[in-house]
Amino acid sequence: MNSIERTLLTLEGKLPDRVPVDLHNFLVTARLMNVGSYADYFRDGEAMAEGQIMAWKRFGHDVLIIENGTAALAGALGVEVRFQSDSAPVATTPVLKSLDEVDKLKLPDPYKDPILSELLKATRIVVDQIGDQAFVIGRADQGPFSLACELRGMGDFLLDLAKNKQPEKIEQLLDFCRQVCHRFAVAQIEQGAHATSIGDSSSGPDVISPTYYRKFAYPYVKRLLDDLKSQNILLAYHICGNSTSIIDDMVSTGAAILEIDQKADMTKAKFAANGRTTLLGPIDPSGIMAHATPDAVAEKCREALDILAPGGGFILGPGCALPAFTPDDNIFAMIETAKEYGHYTI
Description:
This is Uroporphyrinogen decarboxylase family protein. This protein is an alpha/beta fold and 346 residues long. It contains 15 helices and nine strands. Helix 2 (26-32) crosses helix 4 (45-59), helix 4 (45-59) packs parallel to helix 6 (114-130) and helix 14 (294-308) packs parallel to helix 15.
């Protein structure tokens, strides 16, 4: 059974030969490539593809996520983005000084924007070279709520929500961001990716209340998922932090995969997701994967497998992006643990 068969069976709620493994390792690929500047690397589709393929050949993981961080869509919409020499690009200066400026926003063409087109190129190259052997997720960058935070500035946008003086403008901005996400997600699938994904961590309970999540984030993700599912497009949905209080809502969006991190209650997440979606994660990318020993990594992976693997519907991986300096030995420990302990029994 190869990685594609293994992952697709998992997403179908069936039991493959073992639990698949994802690495969420775009920063690690930059380190493996020994690039002089991450800033140049994350602007270059060919380089990003080469790094992903190099990492896959080295580690043999099942699921590849093609991305360059959290600022690609924001940059395409005019947000100032700082490309750093030793880390991922970050969105800095927002483009909307007030909600009254929402009318000025224009949908970007992912095939023409300098950075989005390079990300599509990276996905296309990876698919062309190893897409028949590994499950490729072309990330659609940020979800509607997180993108709105980048366009307006998180502090100002959260204040807009609290004041609620312009509800129609808030709705217009969030729906515009939904359309931007949809367009890029479809473009990633057009490159041959098996699935796409979004990160919407600004909408999680570590930032806003579950009530605000259900009012301002959930409806737009749900509509995005409905539209993508009507096109037979699989999407992974990621929210950092302790998502336990909204895990039922996340499941009900219809996402094929929910990416959870180490703060989430694994038992409650398994109960909510069981038979309805696939969970991905939840190993601590920093405290465990980057800073602990291989034995500690293996122990945490076995714990996750014990709780989340029974009955299927689980992909083992870090709960968020691995730091660039994550030791290779720790990555191998995760993969070998899945191979040794991630087998299903009848």
